[in-house]
Design a protein that fits this description.
Strand 1, helix 1 and strand 2 form a beta-alpha-beta unit. About 50% of the residues lie in helices and about 15% in strands.
Length: about 220
C-alpha cells in the first residue's frame, strides 16, 4: 500500500448497501477499504488492529449506532475522519451531528463522484461541507443569532491572536494546511500549532467544529 493511500472503513448494517458501496470504492484510485463492520461495536473491535483515515459511518444501526460511535471516536480516536451516512436530510439533525464532531454528512443516494470527493476532501481539509450541510449550518446560525448569546460581544474572541484569526478565516475558506502556510508565509508546523491552539481555545472537536464556531460568533462573514 502506498503511503499516500487513504485507508477507509465502512460501517453499515445493510449488507446490500455495504456491498454496493464496496464495489464503488474499488474504482477510486488511491483509496483502500481496510475495514468492514456492521455496527459501531464491531467497528471499535476492528480498529484495535488497524486504524483507518476515514470512516463512512451509517447513522441507524443496531447495538451501537452512528451517534454513539461518533461520540466514542471523538474521545478515543480523534484523528479518524467521520463521514456520516443517512437517508435523512434534516437541518436540525445535521447541525447537531456536526457539532458532535462529525467531519461531514452524506445522503445514501449520493453519486459515486460525490462520495469520492468527500473522502478526499475530508482528508485534505478536515471537513466536507456540501450544499445541504452548509444550508443547515447557516440556518442554525441564524436561529441562534436571533437569541442573545450571554456574555458574548463582537470583541470577545477567547483571546484569539491576530494570526490565529487569520488561520481560522483561511480554514473557513477551505484552504489546506500547506495552502495556509504558503498564503501566510509561515511553516506547515506553525500552521498546525495555530490549529491546535484554536481547537483548545474554542473547545471544539475538529476543523468542522472550528468553521461552525466561526460562523456562530461572526468571525467570518455569513451571507
Amino acid at each position: 500500500m502506498n503511503n499516500n493511500t487513504i485507508k477507509l472503513a465502512i460501517v453499515d448494517d445493510q449488507k446490500l448497501f455495504l456491498n454496493g458501496l464496496k464495489f464503488i470504492i474499488e474504482t477510486f484510485e488511491g483509496i483502500e477499504l481496510i475495514i468492514e463492520a456492521h455496527d459501531g461495536e464491531d467497528f471499535i473491535q476492528k480498529i484495535k488492529d488497524k486504524t483507518p483515515d476515514v470512516v463512512l459511518l451509517d447513522l441507524k444501526m443496531p447495538i451501537m449506532d452512528g451517534v454513539e460511535t461518533t461520540k466514542y471516536l471523538k474521545v478515543h480516536h480523534p484523528d479518524i475522519k467521520i463521514l456520516l451516512l443517512t437517508m435523512y436530510n434534516d437541518e436540525r439533525f445535521i447541525t447537531h451531528l456536526m457539532e458532535l464532531g462529525a467531519n461531514g454528512y452524506l445522503l445514501k443516494d449520493e453519486e459515486p463522484e460525490i462520495v469520492e470527493e468527500a473522502i478526499r476532501t475530508v482528508v485534505q481539509k478536515g471537513f466536507y461541507f456540501n450544499d445541504y450541510v452548509s444550508k443547515a449550518l447557516l440556518t442554525g446560525v441564524k436561529v441562534k443569532n436571533n437569541k442573545a448569546l450571554p456574555g458574548f460581544t463582537s470583541n470577545d474572541k477567547l483571546n484569539l491572536t491576530k494570526r490565529e484569526l487569520e488561520v481560522l478565516q483561511l480554514i473557513c475558506q477551505e484552504l489546506t494546511t500547506s495552502e495556509i502556510a504558503q498564503k501566510l508565509f509561515i511553516s506547515i508546523r506553525t500552521v498546525e500549532g495555530h490549529r491546535k491552539n484554536l481547537l483548545e481555545k474554542t473547545g471544539v472537536r475538529n476543523m468542522a467544529g472550528l468553521v461552525i464556531y466561526a460562523m456562530k460568533h461572526k468571525l467570518i462573514s455569513v451571507v
